Amino acid sequence: MLSKRIIPCLDVKDGRTVKGVNFVDLRDAGDAVELAAYYAEQGADELVFLDITATHEKRKTLVDLVQKVAKELNIPFTVGGGISTPEDVGILLNAGADKVSINSSAVRNPKLISDLASRFGSQCVVVAVDARFADGKWEVYLNGGRLATGIDLFDWILEAERLGAGEILFTSMNHDGTKNGFANETLAKLSEMINIPIIASGGAGNMEHFADTFTEGKADAALAASVFHFKEIEIPNLKKYLKSKDIPVRI
Amino acid sequence: MKDQKIVIIDYDAGNIQSVKYALERLGITPVVSNNEEVIRSADKVIFPGVGEAAWAMNSLRKNGLDKLIPQLTQPVLGICLGMQLMCESSEESNTKGLGIFPLQVKRFTNERKVPHMGWNQLDELKGSLFDGVQEKEYTYFVHSYYVPCSEETVASCNYILDFSASLQKDNFYACQFHPEKSGSVGVKILENFVNL
C-alpha cells in the first residue's frame, strides 16, 4: 500500500540550516548535510530544503549543498526558494535534487509551471502555496506571507494542477506556528478537488495532528520543521503511533 | 566487483547524478556516457530516466542509442522511465519504445491521485535483483504510467491495480521504482545488480 509521507523541512542559508535547530547529539546542528543524514536515518520519507539566501550571488552555495546532500542521501529531496527559471531548475536537478518547489515565481508567471513540467516532467514540480483565511475566503500570499495577492486559493490550486504541477505543498498561514494542528478541513477540500498529491504544512504540534491530517485532512504527506528540529516529536515514534492508528507508513 | 566498468547512459533525460552517487556509495566509480563504444565495452549498463517518453526517445535516437540498447549483451538495468522505454510502446504521447520487453505502457486511471508518488510495497519478488529483499519492503515510486503485470514481471506493486515494479528478460533488468532513492532496500537491489 502507498504510505503516507513524513517530511522534515530544513531552512538553509548559505548552505547551513537556520532557525530553531536544537540538536544536542549532532556535532554541528547547523550542518545541513549532517542533519539531512540524521533525518534519513530516523525514517524521514523525504526532505525539503528551503533556501532563504535571498541574494543571487549566494545561489552557488545552494547548488553545492544540493550536491553534498545528494552524495550522502538515498531518499528523495526537494529544493525550494528563489527558483524562477527553467535554468535554475536544470542546475538544481543536475546537482542531484529530485524535485523543486516554486511559490511566488509561479504566481507571478504561471507559465513557469508548464515550462518546467514539459521540460523536466510534472513529477519534479512542487507548487508551494501560502494562504491565509480571512473574511470568509482563502487568499494566496507571496514573499513568505508578506504580500497579499487577492488570488483565491482554490482557483490557484486548480490552475497549478492544470498547468502541470506534480504536487501541491499547502501552508495555512493561520495554522503555521500555532502547534494547534493542520488546516484539515481546507486540506480535505483541496484533496478532493485535485488529482495530484498534496502535502500538508503548518500547525504540527503533536503526533495526533499528523494522524488527523492524514485521515480528516486527506493529505498524502505532512511537512513540519520545529517539532522535529526540537525533538518534540521523533520520527520513529511518530511512525509507530501512525501505524497503531492504521495509517500506512513506511517503518 | 569494485573494479568493474559500469556505464550510466547519459541522454539528457533525468537525474543521472543520483544514480551516480548511489553507485559511488557502493565504492564504484561509474562512467557517464552517451558514446556507443564506451557503452558497448561496459561490464554493466544503467539506463535511467525521468521525464517525458517521446522527448526521451527523441533524445536516444539522436545518438543512435535506440538501436544500440536492445543489442547489448551485458546486464542492463533500466530505471523508471528507462524501464518504460524498454517496452514496446507507451500511451504517453503514443511513443514507440525500444521493444526489449513485449509490453505496452499504460496510463493510470484517475481513480486515485496520479502520479503514483511515494513509498510503496513490493510483492511477489522473483529473481536475483531481489536476493535478500523481503516481501512488502518499501521502495520509492514516482510515475504516472505503468507496465501491466506479465511473464517478465519479477516484482509487483499495487496502486489502483497490480502493476510491474520490476521486469527481467535475458540480460535486461528494470525497476519502475528508484533504487537510488529507496533507502537501504534500494542499496541492496543496486548491489545485487552490480554483483550479477
Automatic annotation (TrEMBL), chain A:
<comment type="subunit">
    <text>Heterodimer of HisH and HisF.</text>
</comment>
<dbReference type="GO" id="GO:0016829">
    <property type="term" value="F:lyase activity"/>
</dbReference>
<keyword id="KW-0963">Cytoplasm</keyword>
<keyword id="KW-0456">Lyase</keyword>
<comment type="function">
    <text>IGPS catalyzes the conversion of PRFAR and glutamine to IGP, AICAR and glutamate. The HisF subunit catalyzes the cyclization activity that produces IGP and AICAR from PRFAR using the ammonia provided by the HisH subunit.</text>
</comment>
<dbReference type="GO" id="GO:0000105">
    <property type="term" value="P:L-histidine biosynthetic process"/>
</dbReference>
<dbReference type="InterPro" id="IPR013785">
    <property type="entry name" value="Aldolase_TIM"/>
</dbReference>
<dbReference type="InterPro" id="IPR050064">
    <property type="entry name" value="IGPS_HisA/HisF"/>
</dbReference>
<dbReference type="InterPro" id="IPR011060">
    <property type="entry name" value="RibuloseP-bd_barrel"/>
</dbReference>
<dbReference type="GO" id="GO:0005737">
    <property type="term" value="C:cytoplasm"/>
</dbReference>
<protein>
    <recommendedName>
        <fullName>Imidazole glycerol phosphate synthase subunit HisF</fullName>
        <ecNumber>4.3.2.10</ecNumber>
    </recommendedName>
</protein>
<keyword id="KW-0368">Histidine biosynthesis</keyword>
<dbReference type="InterPro" id="IPR004651">
    <property type="entry name" value="HisF"/>
</dbReference>
<feature type="active site">
    <location>
        <position position="11"/>
    </location>
</feature>
<dbReference type="InterPro" id="IPR006062">
    <property type="entry name" value="His_biosynth"/>
</dbReference>
<feature type="active site">
    <location>
        <position position="130"/>
    </location>
</feature>
<comment type="similarity">
    <text>Belongs to the HisA/HisF family.</text>
</comment>
<comment type="pathway">
    <text>Amino-acid biosynthesis; L-histidine biosynthesis; L-histidine from 5-phospho-alpha-D-ribose 1-diphosphate: step 5/9.</text>
</comment>
<dbReference type="GO" id="GO:0000107">
    <property type="term" value="F:imidazoleglycerol-phosphate synthase activity"/>
</dbReference>
<dbReference type="Pfam" id="PF00977">
    <property type="entry name" value="His_biosynth"/>
</dbReference>
<keyword id="KW-0028">Amino-acid biosynthesis</keyword>
UniProtKB/TrEMBL annotation, chain B:
<keyword id="KW-0456">Lyase</keyword>
<comment type="function">
    <text>IGPS catalyzes the conversion of PRFAR and glutamine to IGP, AICAR and glutamate. The HisH subunit catalyzes the hydrolysis of glutamine to glutamate and ammonia as part of the synthesis of IGP and AICAR. The resulting ammonia molecule is channeled to the active site of HisF.</text>
</comment>
<dbReference type="GO" id="GO:0004359">
    <property type="term" value="F:glutaminase activity"/>
</dbReference>
<keyword id="KW-0315">Glutamine amidotransferase</keyword>
<keyword id="KW-0963">Cytoplasm</keyword>
<comment type="pathway">
    <text>Amino-acid biosynthesis; L-histidine biosynthesis; L-histidine from 5-phospho-alpha-D-ribose 1-diphosphate: step 5/9.</text>
</comment>
<dbReference type="Pfam" id="PF00117">
    <property type="entry name" value="GATase"/>
</dbReference>
<dbReference type="InterPro" id="IPR010139">
    <property type="entry name" value="Imidazole-glycPsynth_HisH"/>
</dbReference>
<protein>
    <recommendedName>
        <fullName>Imidazole glycerol phosphate synthase subunit HisH</fullName>
        <ecNumber>4.3.2.10</ecNumber>
        <ecNumber>3.5.1.2</ecNumber>
    </recommendedName>
</protein>
<comment type="subunit">
    <text>Heterodimer of HisH and HisF.</text>
</comment>
<dbReference type="GO" id="GO:0005737">
    <property type="term" value="C:cytoplasm"/>
</dbReference>
<dbReference type="GO" id="GO:0000107">
    <property type="term" value="F:imidazoleglycerol-phosphate synthase activity"/>
</dbReference>
<dbReference type="GO" id="GO:0000105">
    <property type="term" value="P:L-histidine biosynthetic process"/>
</dbReference>
<feature type="active site" description="Nucleophile">
    <location>
        <position position="80"/>
    </location>
</feature>
<dbReference type="GO" id="GO:0016829">
    <property type="term" value="F:lyase activity"/>
</dbReference>
<dbReference type="InterPro" id="IPR029062">
    <property type="entry name" value="Class_I_gatase-like"/>
</dbReference>
<dbReference type="InterPro" id="IPR017926">
    <property type="entry name" value="GATASE"/>
</dbReference>
<feature type="domain" description="Glutamine amidotransferase">
    <location>
        <begin position="7"/>
        <end position="194"/>
    </location>
</feature>
<keyword id="KW-0368">Histidine biosynthesis</keyword>
<keyword id="KW-0028">Amino-acid biosynthesis</keyword>
<feature type="active site">
    <location>
        <position position="178"/>
    </location>
</feature>
<feature type="active site">
    <location>
        <position position="180"/>
    </location>
</feature>
